[in-house]
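Teaching assistant's notes for section 4

Start the section by putting this record on the projector. Ask students to predict, before seeing the second block, whether Peptidase inhibitor family I36 will look compact or extended. Collect guesses on the board.
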Amino acid sequence: MKKMMFFVVSVLAAVLLAAPSATAESAPAGPVCISEALWLYGPNGTAMCTGAAIPSINPAFTAVSESNGSQNAWCLYSQPNYLRLVARIPAFSRADAWVTVASARPC
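Reveal the predicted structure now:
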């Protein structure tokens, strides 16, 4: 049973590593997403708003420096608070992905 579980986890990890990753960019102003939030763009043109000004941690997404008023970059606290949530990418697909985020402060 343990060998089978290890095999399944290994295959799942290989599939996730082989999948193209999205890039995080600063969000355009819009009625659904706050302006400081990060947008995650997929390789086929789909996009997902994180809904909060919190950068993701690799994996599965990489946070980038964003313009937020007078602040231009994000720094992590020395003791960040991590949060895991399920995201569907693209939004209406059946594929779920775990996204890990951490509390951050402006530099």
